[in-house]
Amino acid sequence: MTFPSTIRPAVGQSLISKVSRLYNGTIADVLHELFQNGRRASATAIRVAVYNLPEGSALSIYDDGSGIDDPATMLTLGDSGWQADILDREDPAGMGVFSLAGQDVQVRSWSQSAERGWAVHIPADGWEGGLPLAIEPSGIVRGTEFQIRLPDAWATQLDAALRKAALFFPLPVHFAGAELPRADFLGEADRVEEWEGCRIGIYPDGTSDDPQMPRINFHGLTVPCRLPVVDEVGHLRKWRVRIDIVDAPALQLVLPARKEMVENDAFSRLRLAAETAIYRAIAAKTSHRLAHKDWLRAGELGVSLPEAASWLNGWEAATADNFGRTVGAPVHDGPMILMPDQEPDIEQPLARALRKDQPFGKRAVREESAFAGYDWYDALPRILACTFRFERDGAVHRYGSDIALPADLSSGPVDRLCAEVSVAPDANPSSMPEIYCLPVDMLACNNETWSLDDAVILFDVQADVQPGALAGLIYASLFCASDDHDCDSWETQSSDFEARARDLANRLLLGEDEALVARVREAIFDHVQWLIPEGRSLSLTASLRDLTLTFEQAA
Fold it and tell me: pTM of the prediction?
């Protein structure tokens, strides 16, 4: 065998036998391809009709454009036959008509160079090159008509597919005696910019990302693609773009189905232009909440922005059952101090201490690391850490996010319980923090056990701690419902935990007898008291083995 000295790409003749597999055979593909051909042929409108013929229903798609000059080019795969200006602007591939492969089609068209109309019948089995197709004269005097034997599946989808194909198409589409609705693909855009034959629409919305959402309109054919998205902190706004292609030859669709964009240099430049357009739209607003990194990115793209608006959400102590942290009301005025996210059993008692004494003279606000780097944010004082210190039997103990209690430490009263809070004056790492000691009345320490039975509950012996308040702290600090399918509902788990927390608080503060009395009183209130008739009273005497109930007239 002799090897050639050079080779070049070519199209194998066998490809024509596989044309029926270039498209997926949907009515949507056919409409888009034939509509685009009509538009390229300078048509002023598209007319669609369904005819009831003796051999069955037929779908007619007619455009009043310049027609197909040479019938042979229509069925030459890869040879579009378009003039140079169309070839330069839109890069047609000469494949669109093959979206009809496998269908029974009658084509009528006007040839300008021959100054006559022509027609050809392509049977369902005539698309793969095995049959000669006769060209006959036709009385058509302008444009092109495709008359397709209408498959049953297409008939049921036709109305919806037509409306979708016509919605953003630049030419009017007529069907059943009426023009189908059309809309601007960039309708409701906050701002529209022109760029190299494209229109870029910018949208500030709060919707989630949908990779299947059409973002580019190619003369009525809409496709999804990855385009820039800029989020404002706190999900206030999510800035997106949509692109309406008007005359941009370098932007191309992947052939043959045209369902996605070609990732070329032009598309990369479009993404950059779209990102810049987003920042220009943000600059036109009175304020923004961009992360500092996005603010820097805007500057790199030549868009000057002020710093993000200098407000933060108020801090609210987290509860153990939170799926997402509680967000407080915005704090716009007055001095602020940043509070980092910590475990619920740290935040709950700290919140009680801050409400009682307000030791810093500033509103506690949620830390927002995305703003780090802005001058106003870096100048804020911030809480670095919180550790609880207490004494019992002459020994000093500490508890914090990274400090556990001794395994043998039991629940109960302690001496001089306080929170040691480290506060830095600003973001400068060389700034010396100040330590504040804040009185704390009670703690419900998870102590890495995740169990109420093993948690350590502490209260200052000198503080006025009431059972209800301690039970509330235990619940907020420790209760977290299980989503295991064998567990009870959230309501049942919550109610059971509350009852156990009340009983534990009563035993710690009131003693075993008072706690037992409280449990009995609660059981009677929940399950018995509502049974007592109006105007009567119930006397109960009970022991472990005896129970006496007596109804009397109420006093």
Answer: 0.81
